[in-house]
Design goal:
Blueprint (H helix, E strand, L loop, with lengths): L1 E6 L4 H4 L2 E2 L3 H12 L3 E6 L5 H11 L3 E5 L6 H14 L4 E5 L7 H7 L6 E3 L4 H13 L8 E3 L2 E2 L26 E2 L6 E3 L2 E2 L10 H4 L5 E2 L2 H10 L4 E4 L8 H13 L5 E6 L1 H6 L1 H10 L1 E9 L3 H6 L6 H13 L3 E8 L5 H13 L3 E6 L7 H5 L25 H19 L2 H16 L4 H12 L2 H9 L38
Parallel strand pairs: 1-3, 1-4, 4-5, 5-6, 10-13, 13-14, 14-15, 15-16, 16-17
Antiparallel strand pairs: 2-9, 6-7, 7-8, 11-12
The structure holds cobalamin (B12) and iron/sulfur cluster.
The site of iron/sulfur cluster (SF4) has 11 residues, from helix 7.
Keywords: Iron, Iron-sulfur, Metal-binding, Methyltransferase, S-adenosyl-L-methionine, Transferase
Cofactor: [4Fe-4S] cluster
GO molecular function, one term: methyltransferase activity
Length: 498
């Protein structure tokens, strides 16, 4: 069977900092190929819409799957599905990915017949049974499937994340993937899932709070096959288990692999496992993203982050000592007033780290989707990108955006200050010499992308597709939030948050 896989466009507000390869979709492609199907991939983050139309015409896929990790991409994906069905009504169109797994039934309904199925949960174990069922007729028995007839059997979970290998060779514009100055940049997954349970996050609910690790041999072999000099490690929280971090490092040392790495982790994990991170710095670890979320204990408790402000500040000191460039994230509550923004600006200017701001957003699949008592002011999928306010703001909305963008601009200027500009120019020179222009473009795009008038205008666009309203679940029973309900590892082998 011929299968065309599609990744939607990049979200405008993140595109200036990064654009990364769609690793999940590549793994689904790898699984389909291993089952004998002919697969092509179009990534609309780096290819124009006309490439997709051309591919659709010439490849004549029996099925087309669209990746929906981000809610904000849902309207675009429905449009792509409709165009495909208009061009060839016999093509089986399906969606899969993180976010769509939580709103599958609603999306099927909204697409009005253009989407035949949504696959909830992990795509690797589902794609081959789905393709077989498409060929033979009757997809309703495929694990994880949702169709207009309702839900099929529970989604299956991979026993081991060691395979399939992502089909990186199918991506035609690999040089367009970058994160900051790591340009070009590939991605890799060492672990899957997260054992914590922060109230604003759906990483733990998607995987039913399970946690799986790639074997050092498989991870080493995969890393050896990556051509890019830079690698983004996609794990939700890197190196939770120190022995795993050491084993991976040992494997890369043995294979003499050296690259520049970017990873995400938590402050308490960094404090606990400092020597692992130190060893990785020797292997090329340069950037670290720390989800601090709040600078006060009250905020941290509210998000059930299970760390203290003191842990966060000690972790920053450790990272500085290790010579890492750290980006920290803070969640902006729509309730913030001008004074709160001022305090955060002051904080951001007082630390050498890159401070990233995201707006508190209740997402389907998170606990706050069910518990947030403030009503949604919009249900436009496109605004659920953590750069827009979707619950009432204390400040008038235009003033809120003015303060938000002002704070982001102050932070951005800090990073483009003289000392940094010199450093940036050095990196830029090196990248341009190698024909890499992604980082250069990013440096000049800030003002056109982050603009309060534009953010206000985003709220005025006509809305065609809307998020469903939250159902008020009793979140005392966490399993009701899970996509994968059966753990793939024995519960006692899961690390527990402290
Ligand atoms: C790495 C990561 C990123 C990376 C890379 C993203 C990329 N290009 O893929 C970066 C740093 C760029 C990023 C950015 C953002 N991210 Co992000 N990201 C993640 C993270 C931590 C892991 C994703 C990943 O690569 N997993 C590993 C791969 C193998 O799994 P996967 O992609 O989920 O794919 C599997 C399934 O989803 C499914 N699947 C995927 N596609 C398809 C397609 C088909 C057809 C099928 C059948 C199945 C299927 O099968 C795959 C294999 O099992 C997730 C959290 C999580 N644990 O999922 C958040 C997450 C997806 N991100 C999130 C957010 C909010 C963002 C940003 C908006 C943040 C921001 N403001 O900048 C941006 C937007 C990026 C954009 N598109 O423009 C939210 C999504 C929120 C939402 N509901 O929309 C998540 C869930 C984190 C959270 N806080 O809850 N992100
Ligand atoms: S630690 Fe990170 S990935 Fe895990 S639940 Fe909290 S925010 Fe999500």
């Amino acid at each position: 069977m011929r299968l065309l896989l599609v990744h939607p466009s990049a979200l405008m507000y993140s595109e200036i900092f990064l654009r990364l390869e769609p690793l999940g979709l590549e793994r689904v492609a790898g699984a389909a190929r291993a089952a004998g199907h002919e697969v092509r991939v179009v990534d609309l983050q780096v290819s124009a819409g006309r490439t997709l139309s051309r591919e659709f015409k010439t490849f004549r896929p029996h099925a087309m799957g669209i990746s929906l990790n981000y809610l904000a991409n849902i309207p675009e994906a429905i449009q792509v599905a409709k165009a495909a069905k208009d061009a060839d009504p016999s093509c089986f169109v399906f969606f899969g990915g993180h976010s769509v797994s939580f709103v599958a039934e609603d999306v099927i309904e909204q697409a009005g017949g253009a989407v035949d199925a949504v696959i909830r949960g992990e795509g690797e174990p589902a794609v081959a049974p789905l393709m077989e069922a498409v060929r033979d007729g009757g997809v309703d028995g495929v694990p994880g499937v949702v169709t207009a007839n309702g839900r099929g059997p529970e989604p299956r979970m991979l026993h081991s994340i060691d395979d399939p290998m992502p089909a990186r060779d199918l991506m035609r514009h690999r040089r367009r993937y970058f994160i900051g100055e790591l340009d070009p940049c590939a991605s890799i997954e060492f672990t899957r899932g997260c054992p914590w349970d922060c109230s604003f996050c759906s990483a733990w609910t998607f995987y039913g709070r399970s946690y799986r690790k790639a074997s050092p041999e498989a991870a080493g072999a995969e890393m050896a096959s990556i051509r890019e000099p830079n690698v983004f490690i996609v794990d939700d929280v890197a190196f939770i288990r120190p022995e795993h971090g050491h084993a991976l490092a040992g494997e890369l040392e043995r294979r003499r692999i050296r690259k520049s790495y970017y990873l995400e982790t938590r402050s308490d994990v960094l404090l606990r496992n400092e020597e692992v991170f130190q060893r990785w710095v020797r292997l090329g670890l340069r950037y670290m993203f720390l989800g601090m979320e709040a600078i006060d204990a009250e905020g941290l408790d509210l998000y059930r982050k299970r760390v203290s402000p003191d842990d966060n500040f000690r972790a920053l000191e450790v990272a500085r000592r290790l010579g890492l460039i750290v980006a920290i994230n803070l969640i902006v509550d729509p309730a913030w007033d001008e004074e709160r923004f001022r305090v955060v600006r002051e904080f951001a200017l007082s630390v050498p780290e890159i401070v990233h701001l995201t707006v508190m957003t209740p997402y389907p699949g998170t606990e706050i989707w069910h518990t947030e008592s403030r009503r949604l002011t919009t249900r436009d999928y496109r605004l659920f990108d953590i750069q827009h306010a979707v619950v009432p703001t204390t400040l008038p909305l235009d003033v809120f955006y003015r303060e938000l963008v002002r704070t982001q601009a102050v932070i951005n200027r800090k990073h483009l200050g003289l000392r940094n500009a010199v450093g940036a120019m050095r990196v830029l020179g090196g990248n341009l010499a190698r024909g890499q222009t992604n980082f250069a473009r990013m440096l000049w795009k800030f003002n056109s992308v982050y603009n309060p008038a534009r953010q206000m205008a985003d709220h005025q666009r006509p809305v065609r597709y809307e998020l469903p309203l939250p159902r008020h679940l009793d979140v005392g029973d966490r399993k009701q939030l899970f996509v994968h309900t059966r753990p793939a590892v024995r519960p006692e082998s899961r690390p527990q948050p402290e």
